[in-house]
From TrEMBL:
Ranges for domain Dinitrogenase iron-molybdenum cofactor biosynthesis: 10-103
First and last residue of the signal peptide: none
Protein name: Dinitrogenase iron-molybdenum cofactor biosynthesis protein
InterPro entries: Di-Nase_FeMo-co_biosynth, DiNase_FeMo-co_biosyn_sf, NifX/NifY_domain
Native source organism of the sequence: Geothermobacter hydrogeniphilus
Length: 118
């Protein structure tokens, strides 16, 4: 399972989805997360409190995260969160160390899949 993490430090989930300029992609298989790649993106957020949904920036980020099943971030706006969910990406909000957050994301997505199959 590929999971994207918004992190500036590289050790803790410490980036807002809209402020992230990179996402770290991990493969979480068998309980052993392995870094796969780092993708650079343009910030989604324009720092305008009344900004509309920014489709071009959002779509570019989603393309960069292709193949991921979850996006782990320190914060995310409600509209981008809903749009990610519509695309089948599970947004996870946390500020935990990446290793802990990856397990939580894996468990959350796996749990969602089990509920869907019931």
């Amino acid at each position: 399972m590929l999971i994207a993490v918004a992190s500036k430090s590289g050790t803790v989930v410490d980036q807002h989805f809209g402020h992230a300029e990179r996402f770290l992609i991990y493969d979480y298989g068998g309980g052993n997360p392995a870094p796969v790649k780092e993708v650079q993106v343009d910030k989604y957020c324009s720092h305008d409190p009344n900004h509309p949904f920014r489709h071009p920036q959002f779509n570019t980020i989603v393309s960069a995260l292709q193949g991921c099943e979850a996006v782990v971030t320190a914060m995310i706006g409600e509209l981008p969160k809903q749009e990610l969910q519509k695309l089948g990406l599970t947004p996870i909000v946390t500020s935990e160390p990446i290793s802990v957050a990856l397990k939580g994301a894996h468990d959350a997505v796996s749990g969602s899949l089990l509920k869907t199959d019931e």
